[in-house]
Amino acid sequence: MNVRPIIQPIRAIPSDGPAHVIAGIFATELQIPTADIDDSFFDLGGDSLTAETLVLAVQNRFGIKLQTSVLLAAPTPREFGRLVASLTPTHPARQLIVPVSGSSGHEPIAMIHGISGSALFANRFGKRLKEKYAVMAVRGMGLEPGETPYSNLDEISANYFEGLTSVTGRHPHIIGGICLGGLLAIEVGRLTYEVTGERPALLLIDPPPLGSAWLKPIPDDRMTASRRRQITRKVVYWRLLRDGLNAAGLGQTRIGRHTRQKAFKSALVRAAAGFSPSSYPCDILVLASSEWSAATVEQYRGWASEKTRIKTVVVPGTHDKFREANMQAIDDEIIAFLAARDVAVMREPASP
């Protein structure tokens, strides 16, 4: 049976490269509120001293070598971005970012995978959301032949952050996550906040309880030494089985693919089990199933800091089924939340 592909291959990096990131560097080094990607360094008041500090900041951010005179050839962030893109190696995590077919909006939304690591969950987002935003799914590292899963949350979030920045040319500002992906979205958003000082928007679709050793609501979900050993044994077992099947030339068989998925899942559980992130300024939408909401809604409200805006919505259904049954309602909540956020941001007083 022929099945029409739902997900498109990765598109090329925007021709302007990381222009928006560089515009942020322009603003920081020139000590101005904002810089447009077509603003000239010299028209913004740049001189030889700020040219040196700006070029040094770009070098440190992208790990490349440049001369200060580069600003003569590329005085705007758009031109500078094209130059940087031509000198910057493709980030390995770029392959994990999958644009979703039908997305025609300009503002990117990154949606991070759940426990399975698959990007196919993003097929359920509807036409309205994709018309308004450029939806990108983030799949897990370790699902394809030859890939090794990331070992901890710092490594996962850093690679997803860099991969998204590489594909879009800007740091991710709207990050969502399905189930366990909600925890990953929180950590990717943290990196955006640390780099830009701007509050990211987090869209958490039925996330697990914070600090849960089982990553789901159960009466006693504390992380114990016994639970940690159990998790580690599964990681070792599935990794050895995966490597053995690969060595025997069976990695692409049905059992080989199944084993690779199990190895990925066990590694992700080890990285995330028992994790409870610290709070930071952000805007959060928590969409909880009625099955999990009693254990998660108030917990996430308590997690939010004074500088965090949070909205919680309980959607009828079980954790495994409610997304499929309520995707239109979930899309509507996401669109309404982001629209209200835009209005709130416009009303905020400008920074001195």
Give a short summary of the structure.
This protein has helices at residues 19-30, 48-62, 70-73, 77-87, 127-132, 153-168, 181-196, 225-247, 254-272, 293-303, 322-347; strands spanning 97-99, 107-112, 133-138, 174-178, 201-205, 283-289, 309-315. The chain is an alpha/beta fold. The protein has three domains: 19-87, ACP-like (Non-ribosomal Peptide Synthetase Peptidyl Carrier Protein, Chain A); 93-216 and 273-347, 3-Layer(aba) Sandwich (Rossmann fold), CATH 3.40.50.1820; 225-272.
Structure write-up:
The chain is of the alpha/beta class and 352 residues long. The protein folds into 3 domains: 19-87, Orthogonal Bundle (Non-ribosomal Peptide Synthetase Peptidyl Carrier Protein, Chain A); 93-216 and 273-347, 3-Layer(aba) Sandwich (Rossmann fold); 225-272. It is built from 11 helices and 7 strands. It has helices at 19-30, 48-62, 70-73, 77-87, 127-132, 153-168, 181-196, 225-247, 254-272, 293-303, 322-347, and strands at residues 97-99, 107-112, 133-138, 174-178, 201-205, 283-289, 309-315. A 7-stranded mixed sheet has the order 1-3-2-4-5-6-7, sandwiched between helices. β6, α10 and β7 form a beta-alpha-beta unit. α1 (19-30) packs across α2 and α8 packs antiparallel against α9 (254-272). The longest helix is centred in the C-terminal third of the chain and has 26 residues, at 322-347. Residues 1-15 have low confidence and may be disordered. It comes from Mesorhizobium mediterraneum. This is Acyl-CoA transferase. It holds the Pfam family Thioesterase.
